[in-house]
Design brief:
Bound molecules: flavin-adenine dinucleotide
Radius of gyration: 26 Å
Shape: globular
Strand content: 15-25%
Number of strands: 24
Oligomer: single chain
Structural class: alpha+beta
């Protein structure tokens, strides 16, 4: 293959999936001359699996990406078919937005945004090699023989590295949805010192809407009284598409049990480790054998397609078995499958080899993001892409990286878990992974993160002005909420809610903590005019959870104390007496940045931390 110079750029992003898009935009929007390469321009921001953005804890991540100046939230609002708040019946800390997206529109809009971004070149080409000199990246090489020189590379190759798709006896070397795989880059990564693992995930069939009897199914409509994903969007569509609920049944389960011997998963053909929280239907039937039925959602894939995504029915059973089992489901008795379900195995790397900046420890200038780091999900990928892209940009600009901590956001929790604990299966974000959930709500992400995105150069003037306006409104609302009312001013309100006449002045905050909504209080007392609903919502939650927030603030202060205790990068852990052997080895491998991170490494005990503190003092 004849080698030629394809170009000279400051940065290269390998991949145009959810991680690659955010990384490329973060680089180009902070003035870095960037080239983004993908195997196929038609896979830009491709939703290989469910046509939705958000969900529990994932909604928080989308809003964090938006607050930092990322694109996913803006794009998701433009391609919305339906949006809902999940866990409405629970506390605000675990409520999350989930949007049904028009896949093709999502792809087309993101591609357009990328094409119209200055400093960004997009090229359809396979990267086969990452070039380095003296443990520093100098460029990449494509399958065409083209060499692109650069100072930083973000690797965001998703599920394509040695991608292998499987269903029953059918197995092909392939990316998702028939896209080509990338079968050469893994060898280059291993040569550079990456530890590579094999993971898998799966997707359900797509069936034709025309062949479904929706009349017998439970309809689930969207919601219009919800905020959009992005702080730059002015509302959600009033006209939304419904989803439908249906269930598997004993007949479905019988067919699955009768064909488990043909399941590559149970026949030991699939070696990759799958996501615990997105199990295939055969896995669910085996693991929850006592369950008579499993809930399924029929989700529209777009306005200009008949394709319906059967959420909850992912499988790698053979096509003939799929045909039978899908037709046992209520409403799908005559369904026409348009795309069969399959599983995909792919290579990913050990995230313990990364710094919290997502830079590779062994070669300077290589960053990795997304599914390649062992996560699963568009949102998790996009969040890492933004951080990796921003940190590649900050490195090129000679500035300190942006490291989000566990109290800054779910992105801080996600990345800290990856680089401190690692993962042995596809990592999906969940609210239970975060310690400070009431602080990390969806509604206040801009207050926590927009200043950080601004400092890193990614938050535009337009976004920053909107943030400052919200912040000022919130300060005004907070003062009003703490203002005291004489008992007679709020007596009727209290009586309506069955409370006795108070014998002291009360603030709106006190009334909110008694379960009276701020809307009612504002209508009764006035004074909140001109403050937007989303700001009133945040002010109300801050008042309602005042006690919990104060407690979390104390915990965060204690947390920060250990996080601020920096550990020198060159400590010889192996020679520190008093540290247990396992701790020495783990600390030596992971090289934590601070005492807090050291304490979260599995196998490092509180006693080991005490030894380290004494060592540091000396
Ligand atoms: C079958 C299937 C089922 C899934 N199921 C779920 C699920 O149930 N739940 C869930 O949360 N997530 C699921 N996902 C995962 C979800 O799709 C990914 O998490 C998400 O797309 C990852 O984004 P990414 O940016 O890391 O990679 P991807 O979106 O996979 O994009 C990778 C990009 O890299 C490019 N690329 C790769 N190698 C090269 C190379 N050598 N040179 C140039 N370009 C290259 C590709 O062309 C593509 O543009 C599933 C994915 C698949 C394929």
């Amino acid at each position: 293959m004849n080698e030629y110079v394809e170009g000279n750029y400051q940065a290269v992003v390998i991949g145009a999936g959810h991680a690659g898009c955010e990384a490329a935009l973060a680089l180009a929007r902070t003035g870095i001359n960037t080239a983004m390469l993908t195997l196929n321009l038609d896979s830009i921001a491709f939703m290989a699996c469910n046509p939705s953005i958000g969900g529990t804890a994932k909604g928080q991540i989308v809003r964090e990406i938006d607050a930092l100046g990322g694109e996913m939230g803006v794009n998701a609002d433009k391609a919305l078919l339906q949006i809902r708040v999940l866990n409405r019946g629970k506390g605000a800390a675990v409520q999350s937005l989930r949007g049904q997206e028009d896949k093709n529109r999502y792809h087309a809009l993101m591609k357009q945004t990328l094409e119209n971004t200055p400093n960004l070149k997009i090229l359809q080409a396979e990267v086969t090699d990452i070039l380095t000199e003296n443990d520093k990246v100098i460029g990449v090489k494509t399958a065409f023989g083209g060499v692109i020189y650069c100072e930083a590379v973000v690797v965001a190759t998703g599920v394509y590295l040695n991608g292998s798709v499987i269903a029953g006896e059918w197995k092909r070397s392939s990316g998702p949805n028939g896209f080509q795989p990338a079968n050469e880059l893994t060898a280059s990564l291993i040569k550079l010192g990456f530890n590579v693992k094999r993971f898998k995930t799966g997707t359900p069939a797509r069936v034709s809407a025309k062949s479904i009897d929706f009349s017998v199914l439970e309809k689930q409509d969207g919601e219009t009284d919800v905020f959009p994903f992005s702080f730059l969007s002015d509302g959600v569509p009033q006209k939304q598409r419904p989803c439908y609920l249906t269930y598997t049944n004993e007949k479905t389960h019988e067919i699955i049990r009768a064909n488990l011997h043909r399941s590559p998963l149970y026949a030991g053909v699939i070696h990759g480790i799958g996501p615990r929280y997105c199990p295939s239907i055969e896995d669910k039937v085996v693991r929850f054998a006592d369950k008579e039925r499993h809930q399924l959602f029929l989700e529209p894939e777009g306005d200009n397609t008949e394709e319906i995504y059967v959420q909850g029915m992912s499988t790698s059973l053979p096509q003939d078995v799929q045909k039978q089992m899908y037709r046992t489901i209520k409403g799908l008795e005559h369904c026409e499958i348009m795309r069969y379900a399959y599983a995909i195995e792919y290579d990913c790397i050990d995230s313990l080899d990364l710094y919290p900046s997502l830079e590779f420890k062994k070669v300077s200038g290589i960053f990795t993001a997304g599914q390649i780091n062992g996560t699963s999900g568009y949102e998790e990928a996009a969040g890492q892409g933004l951080i990796a892209g921003l940190n590649a940009s900050l490195k090129i600009r000679g500035e300190e990286p942006l490291i989000l901590r566990r109290n800054d956001g779910y992105l801080g929790v996600l990345i800290d878990d990856l680089v401190t604990k690692g993962t042995n299966e596809p990592y999906r974000m969940m609210t239970s992974r975060a310690e400070y959930r009431i602080t990390l709500r969806e509604d206040n992400t801009d207050l926590r993160l927009t200043p950080l995105g601004r400092k890193a150069g990614l938050v535009s003037d337009y976004r920053y002005e909107r943030y400052l306006k919200r912040k000022a409104e919130l300060e005004k609302a907070t003062v009003l909420i703490e203002k005291l009312y004489k008992p007679k001013e709020v007596l009727s309100l209290l009586t309506e809610h069955g409370f006795d006449k108070p014998n002291a002045a009360l603030s709106a905050g006190d009334l909110i903590r008694r379960g009276i909504s701020l809307k009612e209080i504002a209508e009764k007392t006035g004074g909140f005019e001109g403050i937007s609903d989303d700001v009133l919502y945040t002010a109300e939650l801050n008042a309602k959870y005042d006690g919990y927030i104060k407690k979390e603030d104390e915990q965060i202060d204690r947390f920060k104390k250990l996080e601020d205790k920096v550990l020198p990068p060159d400590i010889d852990y192996l020679s520190i007496n008093g540290l247990r052997l396992e701790a020495r080895q783990k600390l030596d491998k992971i090289r934590p940045q601070n005492l807090g991170q050291a304490g979260r490494i599995s196998g490092v005990s509180p006693a080991d931390i005490t030894v380290l503190m004494v060592y540091l003092k000396k």
